[in-house]
Amino acid sequence: MATLVLSKASLAWAVLVALTLAQWVIGSQTASGGAHVAASLAIFVVAIFKARLVGLYFMELRAAPWALRGLFEFFCLVLLGVLSVMYLLA
Length: 90
Hints:
Layout: H1 2-6, H2 8-31, H3 36-58, H4 66-89
């Protein structure tokens, strides 16, 4: 049981749960009146970071060849950029 709690995947899962709660708090604070643009961009950043954690720790991309991992990291950056620009231009 101790190895389950102390594994990197368990820690990543705990971080994912905490980030999900943070996104919920940001979204609920914004709904009651606040800086919509900043909150939306923060939610995008957290969402892409969560996708990165899932890719690295649950899809085993941490141990993948450097080209595949680099492509995944590049995809995450491009996705964040595209989402942010589309939101800001909409």
